[in-house]
Specification:
Blueprint lengths: L1 H8 L2 H30 L2 E12 L9 E9 L2 E9 L6 H8 L3 E7 L2 E7 L3 H6 L9 H7 L3
Helix pairs in contact: 1-2
């Protein structure tokens, strides 16, 4: 893949391509930061339920496990996914411990599609919230501690 980008830089068209790729990447980063800002500025909490866990990729790297979860706002159900930081868990153990578990979900009341599953203590802190003692085992489990 590195050869592809090196080849692209050797001609004018390739340089334009790389510039366009950089602009698209920057816009995506800015859009993600803006969504996070909106969620941080104004959010509510709903109860979510983990419905499935699965292997996202064929090799182990950060967040290759995914958790599917559901939550409801104003009688509308939202189905979303979140990454799992620990790569040392087996899929069967992850499913056994997590599927059916109820966890808080923060969401933007004006845009519930902008949401985040609160499973890690670091996420609670990011949104100036305190993780309940009853869920601290989830943080340890998902961080492989």
């Amino acid at each position: 893949m590195g050869e592809f980008f090196a080849d692209q830089l050797e001609n004018k068209q390739g340089k334009r391509f790389m510039l366009a790729l950089g602009i698209v990447a920057a816009v995506m980063v800015i859009a993600g930061q803006y969504r996070n800002y909106k969620l941080n500025k104004s959010h509510k909490v709903a109860e979510g339920r983990v419905t499935d866990c699965y292997w996202f990729n064929g090799h182990r790297s950060a967040s290759n496990y995914r958790m599917k979860y559901l939550f409801t706002v104003n009688q509308k159900q939202y189905a979303k996914e979140a990454g799992v930081p620990c790569t040392y868990l087996s899929e069967s153990l992850l499913k056994k411990k997590m599927v059916g578990l109820h966890l808080p979900v923060i969401y933007n009341p004006n845009d519930p599609d902008n949401n985040y599953l609160l499973a890690l203590e670091s996420t609670y802190k990011e949104y100036d919230m305190v993780m309940p003692d009853s869920l601290k085992w989830v943080n340890s489990f998902l961080n492989c501690k």
